[in-house]
């Protein structure tokens, strides 16, 4: 007598073997980066397995097309800007930092004020 559990296990076994028999086909692959730190841009260097440079991108790129075959390596380097070279960019970054961290800055200044005014 064959139970229902035996039928289900046989069906799952056949489906698993069926999925393993067919190779998966990959289309063109893209990589995009989220930018958690909005204060500095980052350069993304894309190398292949032998170490030759495939491309130079930044984190604001819409997507990086990966080669169909082979391994790739990403190297991410921040772009530094001097406040003396580009004061407008520096002020924009400073305002973005203050907007992002306003509450901790206020709490920090309050605590410093308490320490300095204690007698």
In short:
This protein is of the alpha+beta class. The protein is built from 3 helices and 5 strands.
Question: Could you please describe the fold and organization of this structure?
Answer:
By secondary structure, the chain is an alpha+beta fold. The chain has a domain at 81-119. The protein is built from 3 helices and 5 strands; from the N terminus they run H-E-E-E-E-E-H-H. It has a 3-stranded antiparallel β-sheet, with no helix packed on it. Strands 1-4 form a two-stranded antiparallel sheet. The longest helix has 18 residues, at 4-21. The model has no long low-confidence stretch (mean pLDDT 77).
Main pleated sheet: 3 strands, antiparallel
Strand content bin: 15-25%
Give the H and E element order: HEEEEEHH
**Count of helical stretches:** 3
- Rough outline: flat
Classification by helices and strands: alpha+beta
Low-pLDDT runs: none
Percent helix: 40-55%
Estimated radius of gyration: 27 Å
Distance between the termini: 90 Å
Indicate the mean pLDDT. 77
């Amino acid at each position: 007598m064959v139970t229902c559990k035996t039928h289900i296990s046989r069906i799952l076994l056949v489906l698993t073997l069926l999925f393993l028999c067919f190779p998966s086909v990959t289309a063109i692959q893209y990589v995009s980066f989220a930018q958690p730190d909005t204060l500095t841009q980052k350069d993304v260097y894309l190398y292949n397995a032998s170490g030759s440079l495939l491309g130079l991108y930044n984190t604001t790129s819409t997507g990086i097309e990966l080669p169909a075959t082979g391994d790739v390596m990403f190297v991410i380097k921040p772009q530094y800007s001097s406040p003396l070279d580009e004061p407008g960019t520096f002020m924009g970054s400073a305002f973005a930092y203050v907007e992002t961290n306003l509450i901790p800055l206020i709490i920090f200044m309050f605590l410093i004020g308490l320490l300095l005014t204690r007698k």
